[in-house]
Design a protein that fits this description.
Chain lengths: 191, 66
């Protein structure tokens, strides 16, 4: 379990709600009304807020991304020791220690994480309702190269090897994936 | 004092559904449990709060405080 605090608070809140259900017709004292306020509104709200944060954080793990069966080819490639794709290379060499899918698919901007989480909720809804279309494509049509530069951009190796490309205007015309790749296996080949 | 407690019962049941869906999601974080919590679960929690507020307002009106 990744979120023990949220689970414990939620369990206590659920116990409180059950107790209130069993005693809902007893008396009309101030303590009963305080009990309702705390047991039905305050504590459950705190628990649900913690649970929401926990659920969204749980959804950052690659195991979660791979739990939708349509992602199996990507996960199979990611875990493959023989794969030469960028995703597999990053994964097996531990270039990114955890939350590998989420790390690369989160935009490098102030609201990048929020957008990534909203995208995740959208994916969940699409998957749960079966409203996705195959082959699946990256939202927005292309991968933004600034996400790569978040890690690579300031490294000496990157600067030394890309010195000729870092001139004014050139970087905006090129994307990392124009030269490097493939990132993931081709969808049809992977199926 | 309100004798008809059906509004309160509904509020408590809705909140219980929300909390149980949250506990399931946290104990077993797979797509359908997370989706069930973030979708219907949170909606049930919101409904529980709204029903509780309605219960309180009705109680206050019955007592002549509103």
């Amino acid at each position: 379990m990744q979120q023990p605090v949220a689970f414990v608070v939620g369990a206590v809140a659920a116990g409180g709600v059950i107790a209130l259900l069993l005693r809902r017709n007893i008396g009309d004292s101030p303590s009963r009304h305080w009990g309702l306020l705390f047991g039905l509104a305050v504590l459950p709200s705190v628990a649900l807020a913690l649970g929401t944060v926990g659920a969204v954080n749980d959804a950052e793990r690659p195991e979660f991304c791979g739990s939708c069966h349509i992602m199996e080819p990507w996960m199979h490639d990611l875990m493959s020791a023989d794969s030469k794709t960028l995703a597999a290379t990053h994964y097996k060499n531990r270039f990114i220690l955890e939350d590998q899918c989420y790390t690369c698919h989160t935009d490098y901007a102030m609201f990048g994480p929020v957008k990534a989480k909203l995208d995740g909720v959208r994916h969940l809804l699409r998957y749960a309702t079966g409203t996705y279309t195959l082959p699946i494509k990256i939202h927005g049509g292309s991968y933004h190269f600034t996400n790569c530069l978040r890690c690579h951009g300031e490294s000496k190796l990157f600067k030394d090897k890309h010195e000729d490309l870092l001139g004014e205007g050139t970087a905006a015309e090129l994307a990392c994936l124009d030269c490097h790749g493939p990132v993931h296996p081709e969808q049809q080949a992977a199926r | 004092m309100i004798r008809n407690e059906s509004l309160l019962t509904l509020a408590l049941l809705a909140m219980l559904v929300a909390l149980l869906s949250m506990l399931t999601c946290l104990a077993w974080p797979v797509p359908w449990t997370i989706g069930a919590f973030l979708g219907p679960g949170l909606m049930a929690g919101g409904a529980g709060i709204v029903l509780y507020v309605l219960y309180v307002l009705r109680d206050l009106r019955t007592r002549g405080a509103l």
